[in-house]
Amino acid sequence: MTGTYDKDTKTVYWGVGNAAPWPGSMHPGDNLYTSSVLALDPDTGKIKTHFQYHQNDSWDWDEVDAPMLIDMQRDGKSFKSLVHPGRDAIFWVLERKADKINYVAGWPFVKTNVWKGVEAETGRPILDPDHKPVLGKRVEFCPSLWGGKDWPSASYSPNTKLVYVPANENFCGGFTGEKQPLVPGQLWLGTKPEDIGLIPAPNADHFGELQAWDPATGKKVWQHDYKTSQLFGAVTATAGDL
């Protein structure tokens, strides 16, 4: 998926995939640059800086969808932002500068049991280890491996100043991690494909949502539910308010 370009700082912002195989214990540590946004110099290809949305991914939550560039006012401050409703179920608001990306705010936009919150100073998600897949034990987590939002892009309207998110809700997932050899040309999941579960929430009456968020306040303004499926359609906001 292509990135976004900031002509003022001549910077390309590019989303990055997750580590493999899925169980994080097979690739310990933060796994630098994975599930991140990179700030790249298009003339040299060098990385100027980065922000990692979540560390040691274990849920197949890549973050390849590029962030939106929005001029924003929040908490009485004007700044140039990067906005990214993540596959990790967190709605990210970051500040972009020529050589730095600063955390501003992050909150869940769908139900999640993986994160207890986000560290205010660093922007690092606070993990609940009971919902992180491991080797030899089945672990369930919310949202599912499809994430709070998959690859279909969200959009921003400068008219309404709202972000429109094609979201997945009321599905959890689970699998049992296992050691598998790397075979070139084949998927390297760290689990059996037939073991990957998609678990509907009890009494769920819908699985997809088109959400409208105010990124300046963190408030959801409205949502439209899709009863029978997750929402895998990208969103475009037009000047005619479509």
Quickly give the CATH architecture.
8 Propeller
Q: So what's the CATH class? A: Mainly Beta
- Summed over residues and divided by their number, the pLDDT gives a mean of 97
Strands ordered across the widest β-sheet: 1-2-3-4
Q: What is the CATH topology? A: Methanol Dehydrogenase, Chain A
| Biggest sheet descriptor | 4 strands, antiparallel
What is the number of independent domains? 1
Name of the CATH superfamily: Quinoprotein alcohol dehydrogenase-like superfamily
Query: How many helical elements?
Result: 0
Cofactor: pyrroloquinoline quinone
Family: Belongs to the bacterial PQQ dehydrogenase family.
Keywords: Oxidoreductase
Protein name: Pyrrolo-quinoline quinone repeat domain-containing protein
Describe how the helices and strands are arranged.
Blueprint: E1 4-6, E2 11-15, E3 36-40, E4 47-52, E5 68-74, E6 77-85, E7 90-97, E8 100-108, E9 115-118, E10 125-127, E11 138-141, E12 155-157, E13 162-168, E14 171-176, E15 197-200, E16 208-214, E17 219-226
Antiparallel strand pairs: 1-2, 2-3, 3-4, 5-6, 6-7, 7-8, 9-10, 11-14, 12-13, 13-16, 14-15, 16-17
What would you note in describing this structure?
There is one protein chain. The chain is mostly beta strands. It has a single domain (4-226), classed as Methanol Dehydrogenase, Chain A (8 Propeller), CATH 2.140.10. It has no helices and 17 strands. The strands form five sheets. It has a four-stranded antiparallel sheet with strand order 1-2-3-4, with no helix packed on it. Strands 5-6-7-8 form a four-stranded antiparallel sheet, with no helix packed on it. It has a four-stranded antiparallel sheet with strand order 12-13-16-17, with no helix packed on it. It is globular.
